Amino acid sequence: MGDKKLFKRTLISAALALGFTVTNTASAYDWLMMQGTEPAAASVPAHVFGFVQAGFMKDYSSANATGNVYVPPKLLGPNLDAQSGFNISHAQVGVRGTGFPLDDHINYFVLMEAGNTGLNNTSTGKSGPVMTDASVTLNYIKGARVRVGLFKTPGSDEGMQSTIATTYMDFSEVTNQLLLERFPNAVYTGNILPQTQAQLQASGQPLNGFAKPVGGFRDSGVQVFDSFDMGKDWSLTYAAMIGQGSGIELNNLDGKYDTYLYLATEKNLASTGPANGLKFYVWSQSGQRLADVTNDTVANPQLYKRDRSGFGVDYMARPYRVSFEYISADGMIFEGPDKPSYTFVSTNGSTAKANGWYLDGGWYVPNTKWELDARYDTVDLNTGATDEHTFTKTTLGVQYNFNPKAHVTLNYELRDFKCTASTTACTNANKNLSGVGNKIGMQVTTAF
Q1: Fewer Cβ within 10 Å of end Cβ, the chain: N or C?
Q2: Which DSSP symbol is given to 141?
Q3: Single pTM value for the model
Q4: In this structure, are residues 8 and 27 in contact, taking their beta carbons and an 8 Å threshold?
Q5: Are 185 and 212 in contact (CB under 8 A)?
Q6: Are 326 and 357 in contact (CB under 8 A)?
Q7: In angstroms, how far is the first alpha carbon of the chain from the final one?
Q8: pLDDT band at 339, cuts 50/70/90?
Q9: Assigned architecture for domain 2-447
């Protein structure tokens, strides 16, 4: 058992040294420990890391009955102004380590994003590089490490994992719709009507309805966390966090705070391979958000609850891996990719409910650098309402790993977006959702 523990610590140390640049999906990794701590006796004062993701994507959606093809689900984010194009989806550089090499009880983590993402592309135009992470971890109390600053919140595995470790170019629909948070404008913002290409070019304005960046699965606050050896190759990880509920923006406009809870247990399957494991986890997030849902010219926002919870399991035993996660949501339900044109649904999404799940599997082709992947995901928005929506997506993927720091990804998405209730609201919604087609994309990732 001692050799297995040493091997696992060595593996985590190597991943940290690479800036957690794991080229394959890291199904059973402990992301809280990997991102919030440095390996004992192996850390350095400053380790610079980063990666670039560049690629091409095409959306095969067709025009609706009136010829207005340009609604958000038929356009590529984050720009929402075209159906095909090249993009630098991420260009990140960061530094991490222990500030004082003789004392590894204090470590830090800083990360900047310069790519074209929802973090720096809003309805007011594109901005420059943004700080996405800046935290300090104090490791003085056994069993209760304290992390302070701006960082990824404990929660969904898809949200917590490093972007470079993801298998797919797009998030699952349930994670995208319910967890990649959008922040409403201070004053009620109505739906942007569908536009033709000529109208879009004439106005020069994309269909982004929100002026604030997406949350990026991050928040600023304080977190207490740690991981424990439970014996027989089992470990237990927990986290409890208080945050401002403001994403990457360092403000607290409503004076309220969010609570984040996380618990996971993992079985190390080192006997069947160095990166193998079985992990079970459960999490919850509770808070409030300000939103103006009255269609007038007066800014009169009110507080609405925003609760999220979920559970999942990850299994990796090369050459196979499987992941499943279920997510539920109560309050602050939006519709549309990236920063949607929708403010809230007609039945007032500020108090609506939603739920969904994804099932993801992969096969690492033995004795090759190829990986085959498939994921099915679905989300049910506004459950029980007159405009209940179901967004379903099947993604087929192929990856080729040039080396431990570079790979190319090819994805094909089959999408089925529809409003499912037999109401006038759904009849109108389906006029725009009709014709939502499949997407194809290719992306090259390299890290340093």
Answers
A1: N
A2: S
A3: 0.90
A4: no
A5: yes
A6: yes
A7: 33
A8: very low
A9: Beta Barrel (2.40)
